[in-house]
TrEMBL record:
This is KATNB1-like protein 1. Keywords: Cytoplasm, Cytoskeleton. The keyword Cytoplasm applies. Residues 50-204 form the Katanin p80 subunit C-terminal domain. Its main location: cytoplasm. GO terms for cellular component: cytoskeleton; nucleolus. InterPro entries: Katanin_C-terminal, KATNBL1. It comes from the Eukaryota.
Length: 209
């Protein structure tokens, strides 16, 4: 279903797609203090080795899940979305979300509006992250949805309960965007590019009927 531009290739995984759960700058000084004391954490090589083995195990599992995601993406976008929802792994979602965002910006995206509706609750979790890089991934996703379906989202008309599934999804997405921004509005106060992108999104969402 997906063409070569949309495929989650192994080279994509290597080139900057791994969003480590601890990447980016922490927004509070407590995290910085923990990092400052990291050098005194280990008393011998045994503890150091155990920590490295645990990290290797985590990355191995992460890589396996990404390979499954890659296979599902090539087969059917809706299967990938169902998989991401089922595993509830924020790290894997952060890896995949930029690819899905780019796909929405193409003329013929593989992702349906229904798939995007289903992913919104997990994206809401990402926007609540303390890491700015993670938040930016979520904001770009939200922006791509708004741009893709803005003509439909901005229509000031109520759709009937017995209308087609696409119309119902528009109404659900509209409500989820509004609910999302009840908490997401605070991101407009973040300095720099994150705050600017949040303000751009808010300018659209404030126009929703």
């Amino acid at each position: 279903m997906a063409n070569k531009e949309n495929e989650l290739t192994c080279s994509d995984d290597v080139r900057g797609m791994h969003y480590n759960d601890n990447c980016g700058l922490p927004v509070n000084s407590a995290e910085a203090s923990k990092m400052a004391g990291a050098s005194s954490k280990y008393s011998d090589f045994t503890e150091l080795t155990k920590d490295h083995e645990a990290m290797t195990h985590v990355l191995f599992g992460r890589n396996l899940r990404l390979k499954v995601a890659q296979t599902l993406w090539r087969r059917n976008a809706s299967e990938l979305v169902a998989y991401l929802i089922r595993i509830q792994d924020t790290g894997v979602l952060l890896d995949c979300l930029p690819v899905l965002t780019n796909n929405l910006q193409t003329e013929a995206p593989c992702l349906s509006l229904g798939c995007c509706v289903d992913l919104m609750p997990q994206v809401k979790v990402i926007l609540a992250s303390k890491y700015e890089q993670h938040i930016m991934v979520g904001l770009h996703w939200v922006q791509s949805i708004i741009k893709k379906w803005w003509p439909e989202l901005s229509k000031n008309e109520k759709r009937l309960q017995d209308s087609c599934s696409e119309d119902r999804n528009i109404e659900v997405m509209k409500q989820r965007l509004k609910d999302l921004w009840k908490e997401g509005a605070r991101l407009c106060l973040v300095p720099g590019s994150t705050g600017e992108l949040a303000k751009t999104i808010e300018a659209y969402l404030s126009q929703l009927p």
